[in-house]
Amino acid sequence: MSTLLVMSMFPDAEVARTIARTLVEEQLAACANIVPGAESIYWWKGVIESSSEVMAFFKTTDDQYKRFESRLAELHPYKLPEIVAIEPWGGLPAYLQWVMANTGA
Q: Counting C-beta atoms within 10 Å of the first and last residue's C-beta, which end of the chain has fewer, N or C?
């Protein structure tokens, strides 16, 4: 089992906070960090768009990832939410163990 860092963008801090709390309460994520003040510039339906967003980083495990991804997509207000998982190549072993212990693993 390994730890994953999952990134997603949200329209505002309140939405990010509500979804993050739900995922942590359901032990699909051990932790979520909410980072306000992001600006996104992207293509959407053939037009370049720009919007203020809030970034969130979630810590979960590969064992929980499919359930995590499904639940985040279900809760997310965007039609096509950004959900990107990254497997870190290292980390403090005690912290990684804590993530595993707090994700229903």
A: N
